[in-house]
């Protein structure tokens, strides 16, 4: 079993910053992809950023230049540094990992709320 625990969400004014963390624990050999997704109010879940185990990153166009994803493989933790936040960044942010044991499986965190006020 694999568990993801997210932290770092909250309420911030436009232009501010937040840092999300997602710690992975449980039984697995390795973690390949790690990423962050978000679900704005009334909308579908969307990709924010992903990072592979060799450090390659991918970002949604809407967050490029403002957000930075990183990971600490020793701690099995992925981070999302969010700067210059905008009201449209508001939503529930979910951590996602692809963990390998006998096979690859996708796991999701419980979600952390981010609210950006104008």
Provide a descriptive summary of the structure in words.
By secondary structure, this protein is an all-beta fold. Strands 2, 4, 5, 6, 9, 10 and 11 form a seven-stranded mixed β-sheet that branches. The chain has a four-stranded antiparallel β-sheet with strand order 1-3-8-7, with no helix packed on it. The radius of gyration is 14 Å and the shape is elongated. It is built from no helices and eleven strands. The N and C termini lie far apart (40 Å).
What topology does this entry show?
Layout: E1 2-7, E2 10-13, E3 18-26, E4 30-39, E5 46-51, E6 57-59, E7 67-72, E8 77-82, E9 91-100, E10 104-108, E11 112-117
Parallel strand pairs: 2-11
Antiparallel strand pairs: 1-3, 3-8, 4-5, 4-9, 5-6, 7-8, 9-10, 9-11
Overall body shape: elongated
Strand content: over 45%
Count the DSSP helices: 0
Residue share in helix: under 10%
Structural class: mainly beta
Key descriptive features of the protein:
118 residues, mainly beta, seven-stranded mixed beta sheet, four-stranded antiparallel beta sheet, 0% helix, elongated
Can I get a quick summary?
The protein is an all-beta fold and 118 residues long. It has no helices and eleven strands.
């Amino acid at each position: 079993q694999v568990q993801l625990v997210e932290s770092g969400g909250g309420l911030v004014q436009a232009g501010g910053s937040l840092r999300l963390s997602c710690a992975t624990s449980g039984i697995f050999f390795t973690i390949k992809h790690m990423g962050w997704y978000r679900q704005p109010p009334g909308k579908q879940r969307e990709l924010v950023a992903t990072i592979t185990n060799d450090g390659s990153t991918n970002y949604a166009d809407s967050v490029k230049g403002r957000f930075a994803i990183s990971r600490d493989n020793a701690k099995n933790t992925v981070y999302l540094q969010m700067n210059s936040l905008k009201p449209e960044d508001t939503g529930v942010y979910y951590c996602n990992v692809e963990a390998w044991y006998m096979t690859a499986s996708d796991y999701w965190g419980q979600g952390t709320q981010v609210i950006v006020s104008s």
